């Protein structure tokens, strides 16, 4: 089940119809005119000429529900692309979007975004923050507020320099995951293990991202999972599950009628923020106890707290979004990668050869090894794949 990435893939962009481009197309109909910039024509055409089903959101929501859309979104989108072409507009319930499929169109969009890209508004998530009077993180912020937070996070999260801090943590989790797989295979006594890998990879991704963000292991690679950690997983799963319907039905309405989906959503986010509070509390306790010259990397959360450039509320908001954003994206991509590798043994061999060669050349230095691998993966993905390959 694609939780986060299911709707994330709907990040909506309007291209190659150029105009006031935004990634969050809500309110897109206010864009009066867009220019088509395909190779054949540069005529200016109205936004309303984008093909698709956007005239009756309620009827579309009914059809979406009839097609079991929450489970079949990817199929429905593919069918729409086949019907309307590589750019189509739709309105399902109150959710209005323009969808693109060609990478070239995505590239044009990202180039046109400027310094303050308009983000997709995840109404369910912003409603929760407003409800609890909590701050938005980078995923939900816009404009200069987004940019100033993002610049600080860039240094702490995605700068290549940080890799050397993250890799040992990710490596440890990757090794544990592979050891767990081997143990499971051994236990069956049949030299194989049949399971729903999506759950395993979900736990793996969550363990990895938590380790990097909070500097602590949740223990999800063990057979016995601590009830507190299990509650945290359940909360994350629940956030994704309850987000899907609220993309199409306004959370404000669901809140007003006291709908279960809204109550569950609030309860799940409460659980996640409680965990963040607990981690912050632990980090402060450790900082008081530890020798300040300690060389050990304490995780993104502790680094941000020590850096003291963002408010605690801003840090907490972005950390929870980083955590939510780092789980499904990674686990589902990994699931598909493993599936495709299983279907293409020659590719598997190629990958194994590349990893083995890089390992030999780097003499076991993982950071050096990463630099030598010609394939481009996100690091969590790569580390696990390389551990599988060896
Ligand atoms: C294969 C893995 C991943 C995929 C496919 C993916 C995809 C995306 C996409 C499409 C966006 C929206 C970009 C935009 O609106 O301009 C995004 C943003 C984001 N992702 Fe990822 N992501 C992945 C991994 C991760 C990981 C591992 C984390 C956290 C550790 C993460 C955290 C975030 C956050 C916080 C944002 C919002 C950033 C901002 O608005 O400034 N993602 N991701």
From TrEMBL:
It is a peripheral membrane protein. Its cofactor is heme. GO terms for cellular component: mitochondrial inner membrane. It is found in: Mitochondrion inner membrane. InterPro entries: CYP11_CYP27_families, Cyt_P450, Cyt_P450_E_grp-I, Cyt_P450_sf. It comes from the Eukaryota. The keyword Oxidoreductase applies. Its EC number is 1.14.15.6. The keyword Nuclease does not apply. Pathway: Lipid metabolism; C21-steroid hormone metabolism. Keywords: Cholesterol metabolism, Heme, Iron, Lipid metabolism, Membrane, Metal-binding, Mitochondrion, Mitochondrion inner membrane, Monooxygenase, Oxidoreductase, Steroid metabolism, Steroidogenesis, Sterol metabolism, Transit peptide. Signal peptide: none annotated. One of its GO terms (biological process) is cholesterol metabolic process. Its main location: mitochondrion. One of its GO terms (molecular function) is iron ion binding. It catalyses: 6 reduced [adrenodoxin] + cholesterol + 3 O2 + 6 H(+) = 4-methylpentanal + pregnenolone + 6 oxidized [adrenodoxin] + 4 H2O. It is an enzyme of class 1 (oxidoreductase). A cytochrome P450 monooxygenase that catalyzes the side-chain hydroxylation and cleavage of cholesterol to pregnenolone, the precursor of most steroid hormones. Catalyzes three sequential oxidation reactions of cholesterol, namely the hydroxylation at C22 followed with the hydroxylation at C20 to yield 20R,22R-hydroxycholesterol that is further cleaved between C20 and C22 to yield the C21-steroid pregnenolone and 4-methylpentanal. Mechanistically, uses molecular oxygen inserting one oxygen atom into a substrate and reducing the second into a water molecule. Belongs to the cytochrome P450 family. This is Cholesterol side-chain cleavage enzyme, mitochondrial. The gene is cyp11a1.
